[in-house]
Write a structure and sequence with these properties.
176 residues, 44% helix, 8 helices, homodimer, 2 strands, DNA-binding
Chain lengths: 176, 176
DNA sequence: CAATTCTTGACCGCATTTGTCGGGAATAGT
DNA sequence: ACTATTCCCGACAAATGCGGTCAAGAATTG
């Protein structure tokens, strides 16, 4: 798994764009870089990819800049990260082997684990949009999903049975 | 976030240990490295950390090796990864700044997002133990949690309302 | 004492990430 | 047309740290 600053920066930039731009107003990269404290040249590279992925549209010339291609509520964090973090490295488990895990017979014991983790993470990132970030509606979201996804929406159909979630202190996975 | 091969290898090794060893039998690193196709010297480093974290106990001399310190069902993947993937880099968002995100006033927009993601991932990794891996009881686990954690255990208290999960194709987050 | 096996620390090459730089191409205003 | 603005693109540089090796040493068994 590989989620680097590229992904973080991209989300920050698009969230900024969602907050400080409208459908009619373009925001220049320099402004975003300034507000978010990021390198302008670096951001340019990221926006190039975001554009190729169809998430933003560019307007050149004076008064130009970028604007979101869709509604902020229709752009998931998952999509943003995917646009920027290219290589879908389904890394072979046994690196000497060309087919690796896919090789059916010698599928390594932890294969399912990482596959499931990928799904789990993607479910989360897909469930959050730029609109959510701008609206500051993200805190507590993980707990909400764990309690049952229905509670994320409103709170019909409660479903709180604890299940088997050992406590244990979160370690090994780092963010921010 | 940073989940590298170190974490993968560690889990593979401990799962192997859970499968091929008992409370009375020690398994030498060489055996594990051989079965899992990993570098022995590299594994040694990982086991050093696993031991310091209290997850395994070492027995030296001929007939020695490693054995799990606890029951396989009492060791979560989260614990393993945490033991091996050291640096708790709560990386400052604005790298020039010493306090970064914590600095209350200038907390960057995406702070909550990554914090929640960390929680979300950890919930998953904490819910899975070595015993689960050995028993091959991991497939479909993410979907199960999304449907409501209660369904992971058995299937009392169903709770299936879809919630807001846009489809979208998983991208950007890679595993093996 | 000799064979195992863990224990530790130093070391290194390489790929990837994280940028920088400079020039070029569209566009708007004058 | 000229100029200022802004996106666009490719090459290049630096740093980080991952993945892995090597060698020496300390327990333990027989």
């Amino acid at each position: 798994m590989e989620l680097t600053t590229k992904g973080r920066y991209a989300v920050m930039a698009l969230a900024d764009l969602a907050a400080n731009g409208r459908a009619d107003r373009s925001v220049p990269i320099a402004d975003i870089a300034g507000r978010q404290g990021l390198s302008q040249s670096y951001l340019e590279q990221l926006f190039a990819r975001l554009r190729r992925a169809g998430l933003v549209r560019a307007v050149r010339g004076p008064g130009g800049g970028y604007r979101l291609a869709r509604d902020p509520g229709a752009i998931s964090v998952s999509a943003v990260v995917a646009a920027v973090d290219e290589e879908i490295r389904v890394t072979a488990c046994q690196k000497g082997d060309a087919l690796g895990c896919q090789g059916r017979s010698s599928r390594c014991i932890t294969h399912d684990l990482w596959a499931e983790l990928t799904v789990h993470i993607d479910q989360f990132l897909t469930s959050i949009t730029l609109a959510d970030i701008v609206a500051d509606a993200v805190r507590g979201r993980a707990a909400a999903m764990a309690a049952g996804p229905s509670s994320v929406q409103g709170d019909s159909g409660r479903c709180v049975t604890a299940g088997r979630l050992r406590a244990h202190g979160m370690g090994g996975v780092h963010a921010t």
